[in-house]
Amino acid sequence: MDERNARAGSEMRGRVLPVRVTGCGIGFPAGGKWVSNEEVHALRFGPDWRTEMARQGADPGYYEAKLGVRRRYWVQRPGQENSPDALTAMDLMSAAATHALANASMKASDMDAMICVTITSPFYTTAVAARLAQQLGVQAPSFDLRTGCATGIFALVIAAQLIDGGARNVLITAGDTTSKILDPTNNTVYAGGDAGSAIVLSRSTGKAGFLAHYIDTDGTFSAQTGVPGLLPPTRADVEAKRYYLEYRDEGKEAMLDGAWKRIPDELYARSGLVAKDIACYVPHQAAKRQLALAAKEADIPEARMVNVLGEYANCGPATIFLALHRAFEEDRINSGDRYMLGAAGGGLSWGGVIMEH
User: Fold this and answer.
1) Cα angle at 145 between 83 and 172, to 5 degrees?
2) Dmax over Cα atoms in the chain, in whole Å?
3) Residue 36 parent element (H or E)
4) What is the DSSP string of 115-137?
5) Dihedral of CA 294/37/64/241: which sign?
6) Overall pTM surpassing 0.90 (yes/no)
7) Cross-strand pairs, 175
8) What b/e sequence results for 110-121 when a residue is b if at least 16 CB atoms lie within 10 Å of its CB, and e otherwise?
9) I need a labelling partner for 280 at 20 to 30 A (CA). Which of 4, 21, 211, 325 fits?
């Protein structure tokens, strides 16, 4: 990783991109369900899960202690055949976008671009963004973006560049339905949640702006995280249950750990800032261990880091804007504050930004 040439944003030191987050929103529409760990136990081990877990020597409290997850929102029971009546990633994006626009006191027609972030698009070819633009009333270029759990960071960087090039407002809306690809027969079923989240990024006329950004990708371990089945689906892959989310570690975790160090190192170097200058750190909410690692590598106390993992689980790239929404909701980011966002995940892709509010 030390030999990588991540040039995007590397020449920005001393130059601030004039952007500011003007609205955040989240989307958990009616039709989904909040699910406790006990309900996941019943799905994983059967209705008599206490007896079965005792027989297998499994601790019911292990999953919260290990992963840090207490509950999650699901639009569909994992393992159930996909239903046309179930909510989709687009439904979650729509709810979150509507919320973000309201919080920004703007209309969809005020947007100069929209970026849709998802790794679980309900459409094989058509962009979610095109359909969502029509639904919301966005009359501007709209496109999908997908690069694993770091997609939200990539979208932020692209949106900031669009604004630097003349756009006034860009809507980023994220949504994922991981419940539709979770395997109910193994422990990954505890880790994933569904969510919609969105932000409005607008041109700033004051000091607020992008102080630094950093994004990168290494495809060496790209096959170790994701749904391995081919598209269009094949009978062999269906029979082998290869349309569930898989996690393998044959070197992937070590690289991700390195990414969590590289993110703050690059951002501090590019911005000229140090850890004590950061009022709030908003990392991707992957799991308990990764959150602790993110805080350690950034040299930021966990008290200055947002943690919503217990409430939402890992909702893919939508997760980071859930955490950012919470930071603003709790007044952890105020005018003049400098804050950092970081994410690393499948691809492997990773990156971060430092912004002044």
Assistant:
1) 90
2) 63
3) strand 33-36
4) EEE-SS-S-SSS-HHHHHHHHHT
5) negative
6) yes
7) 196
8) bbbbbbbbbbbb
9) 4
Distances (CA, A) of 345 to 119, 126, 274, 281, 317: 12, 25, 24, 17, 9
pLDDT surpasses 70 at 230: yes
Q: How far apart are CA 186 and CA 79, in angstroms?
A: 11
Q: Check if the beta carbon of residue 133 is closer than 8 Å to that of residue 112.
A: no
pLDDT band (50, 70, 90) for residue 255? confident
Structural contact between residues 285 and 309, judged by C-beta atoms closer than 8 angstroms: yes
Q: Which of 33-47, 49-63, 80-94, 225-239 has the lowest mean pLDDT?
A: 225-239
Domains parsed from the chain with CATH numbers:
21-32+76-203 (3.40.47.10), 209-356 (3.40.47.10)
* Alpha-carbon distances of 271 from 36, 153, 183, 214, 332, rounded to whole Å: 41, 17, 42, 11, 21
The arithmetic mean of pLDDT across residues 135-153, rounded, is 96
Tokens of 315: 């909702």
Q: Please name the residue that has the structure tokens 């990783």.
A: 1
C-alpha 24/C-alpha 102 separation (Å) is 9
Is residue 153 within 8 Å of residue 215, measured between CB atoms? Answer: yes
pLDDT of residue 175: 97
* Tokens, residue 177: 């339905």
Question: Tell me, what's the pLDDT at 5?
Answer: 64
User: 312-343: per-residue pLDDT in tens?
Assistant: 999 999 999 999 999 999 999 999 999 999 99
φ/ψ of 135, rounded to 5, equals -65, -45
Q: Using an 8 Å Cβ cutoff, are 73 and 193 in contact?
A: yes
* C-alpha of 179 from chain center: 15
Residue 168 burial (10 A CB sphere; 0-12, 13-18, 19+): middle
